[in-house]
Amino acid sequence: MPLCMVAVTWMGEAMASASVCYSIKDANERAYCLGEARQNHDYCYRIKDADRRNECLAKTKGSRDRCYTIKDPDSRHICLTLIR
Q1: DSSP labels, 30-48
Q2: Which of 10, 12, 44 has the alpha carbon at shortest distance from 27?
Q3: Which residues contact 3 (CB under 8 A, 6 or more apart)?
Q4: What are phi and psi of 33, to 5 degrees?
Q5: What radius of gyration, in Å, describes the C-alpha atoms of the chain?
Q6: Residue 7 and residue 80: Cα distance in Å, rounded?
Q7: DSSP class of residue 22?
Q8: Local confidence pLDDT in tens for the 84 residues of the chain
Q9: Nearest CA among 3, 23, 14 for reference residue 60
Q10: pLDDT digits (tens, 9 = 90+) for 68-78
Q11: In this structure, what DSSP letter does residue 49 have?
């Protein structure tokens, strides 16, 4: 029973953070926020900026391969640091 309560609490927090994303006006930033909050890479494909899309995909899929496709060296380094 306690494990179930933990799962319900975690889902509540994830939904709360996702609801904040809908208040973001910029469509690209909203998609990035929703991708991270819901851990759903489908939202990442809505992002028009290729580097930002690849960063979102790397974080939601946990794939370092996407980090290597980021052109900005600083962003690539940060992505590779976050994804292990």
Answers
A1: HHHHHHHHHT-GGGGGG--
A2: 44
A3: none
A4: -60, -45
A5: 14
A6: 29
A7: T
A8: 444 333 333 444 444 588 899 999 999 999 999 999 999 999 999 999 999 999 999 999 999 999 999 999 999 999 999 988
A9: 14
A10: 999 999 999 99
A11: S
Residue 49 has, within 13 A of its CA and on its CB side, a CA count of 15
Distance (Å, whole) CA 35 – CA 82: 16
What's the CA gap between 52 and 69, in Å, rounded? 11
The C-alpha angle with vertex 50 and arms to 59 and 67, in degrees rounded to 5, equals: 40
Reading the block at residue 35, the tokens are 């991708």
Are 41 and 66 a contacting pair, CB within 8 Å? no
pTM of the predicted structure, to 2 decimals: 0.77
Tokens of 3: 């494990």
